């Protein structure tokens, strides 16, 4: 209900006192310049960081927009290019419950892996690798969520993520000491040495992640990028600008037409 929204749709604006002269100069210089597709102004949506690849409109909005195609993103120096969030199963159960999804005691999560950047993803992912849908199963039932729902409910940066279930490895274990007659006469503590002090269950099945609910167990979401992944990437545009040829005054057009496929930047008023 507002013309200006404090989100990706309208970007935060904090008033005249925060404006910068250099930015105002750029606005004045590009006055009347419009990004068009087939002669019509486009809906120039954007996001913060695509995690190396932007997304197709159909996989975000469910409809085809010819200039919103998945392209390479140059956002490698973005602070959210790689991110990680770990939650205990009890917190996931609580967040699902407050939204009306009575999953009960969480038992498993089904989501295919990203395969380290492979293009061969499961049917639950888009062509770029973002999550389309995933299953949460528990004692109360099984629920199918879209990637956008999971992102919003669990407070994740994007839908470009994979899941790991880990629990800590103890520092040591006690070994019983027996006499020749098989009677325990004492116990000895033996330290455990591992390079990674965690046990991962992700290799049991490629897309099924079992949750035991044991003390110290964490469900970890490892992802890339921030936002919808649709349209222009702010950090990607910055990356392209930083590598622009010297004194290339019109390079902003290259950036815009990269992120908005088959468009033109032209002065129309």
Percent range of helical residues: 10-25%
Please give the count of helices. 6
> If strands are numbered along the chain, what order do they take across the biggest sheet?
4-13-8-11
Tell me the total number of β-strands. Answer: 15
Rg (C-alpha, Å) = 25 Å
| Mean pLDDT across every amino acid position | 86
Shape: elongated
Contiguous runs where pLDDT drops below 50 for at least 5 residues: 195-204
Beta strand %? 25-35%
Largest sheet: 4 strands, antiparallel
Give the assembly state of these chains.
single chain
Description:
The protein has 269 residues and is α+β, with helices and mostly antiparallel strands. It has 2 domains: 16-79 and 227-267, no CATH class; 82-165 and 199-224, no CATH class. It is built from 6 helices and 15 strands. The protein has helices spanning 21-29, 57-61, 89-98, 147-154, 234-242, 251-259; strands at residues 33-37, 40-41, 46-47, 82-87, 106-110, 133-138, 141-146, 161-168, 172-178, 184-191, 198-200, 208-210, 218-224, 232-233, 264-267. The protein has a 4-stranded antiparallel β-sheet with strand order 4-13-8-11. It has a 4-stranded antiparallel β-sheet with strand order 7-6-5-12. A 3-stranded antiparallel β-sheet has the order 2-1-15. Strand 1 (33-37) and strand 2 (40-41) form a beta hairpin. The longest helix has 10 residues, at 89-98. The radius of gyration is 25 Å and the shape is elongated. The protein starts with 20 loop residues before the first helix and ends with a strand. Mean pLDDT is 86; it is low at 195-204.
